[in-house]
Design a protein that fits this description.
Layout (H helix, E strand, L loop, with lengths): L1 E4 L5 E6 L2 E5 L17 E9 L3 E8 L3 E8 L2 E5 L4 E4 L4 E5 L4 E7 L6 E8 L9 E5 L3 H4 L4 E6 H4 L13 E3 L3 E8 L4 E6 L3 E14 L3 E4 L3 E5 L6 E7 L5 E9 L3
């Protein structure tokens, strides 16, 4: 039901002087046939980018790409005409669809950039490319699960291809993403419905899940229900450090 993934077991990639990444799943030079994905969650990379550097313009297609900024400033530019800089707690979403190019840079002179890069497999190919972002404050996720992304079909059923810029970010897949920044000792509960599963990442601090599984920074947790019933997950932040975490919830694997 709960499978703990230790940060020490994640693959660490250092392909160039400015980038250090931790891969939760098979990616780039890390080929792991037994660790390709978790449901529709195909990629989850924890990236550290040094100042005055970053990812130059490169292409993507047929993937839902979600980015959560942990520290520093992320400067985005794409072929859709979008150009913006996002800070801690902000999120960006890109439906690559039929094809899009983009760059992600850390233009700061002395501050490291850390962000989580998440790829979700879309429910169909050839979608119209789309970009959206949200600016959030710490209060928005303080001691609660902030819902930041949800299923496109649930969000809007009228064929909308361009993000409105408000509310929960729409994604072309049956998936929900939550973030939380909990103070020391805070307790939250998440109910995993039957035939659903989730992947939790402890970004900073530490927490316990159902008082049986303890996670520290960069650890992850696979959550599955072993029965047809819903499953209640009690998340308690560390009594000294508190906890900052992200949760990706989706349909169970068939």
């Amino acid at each position: 039901m709960l499978r703990h993934i230790s940060a020490s077991g994640l693959y660490v990639s250092k392909p160039t002087w400015w980038l250090e990444s931790r891969f939760h799943f098979s990616f780039a030079e890390y080929y792991a046939p037994r660790n390709m994905e978790f449901g529709v969650l195909r990629v989850l990379n924890d990236d550290l980018v040094k100042p005055r550097s970053g990812f130059e313009t490169h292409p993507h297609r047929d993937m839902e790409i979600f980015t959560y900024v942990v520290n520093g400033q992320l400067t985005h530019k794409d072929s859709l005409g979008t150009a913006e800089t996002l800070e801690r707690g902000c999120v960006q979403y890109m439906s690559a669809g039929r094809g899009v190019t983009h760059s992600e840079k850390n233009k700061a002179s002395n501050e490291m950039l850390r962000f989580l890069q998440i790829w979700i497999k879309p429910n169909r190919s050839g979608l119209t490319p789309n970009y959206g972002s949200r600016v959030f404050s710490k209060e928005d996720r303080h001691n609660k699960l902030q819902h930041v992304a949800t299923s496109y079909d649930e969000y809007d059923g009228h064929g909308l291809h361009k993000d409105t810029g408000e509310g929960i970010i729409p994604m072309h897949q049956d998936v929900n993403i939550y973030v939380s920044e909990a103070e020391a000792g805070a307790v939250q509960e998440f109910v995993l419905q039957s035939k659903r599963q989730a992947y939790l990442v402890c970004i900073e601090g530490a927490l316990s899940a159902n008082e049986s599984c303890n996670l520290t920074a960069r650890d992850a947790l696979e959550i599955k229900s072993e029965t047809m019933l819903s499953f209640s997950l009690k998340l308690e932040a560390d009594n000294e450090k508190g906890c900052h975490f992200l949760l990706v919830e989706m349909a169970e694997e068939q």
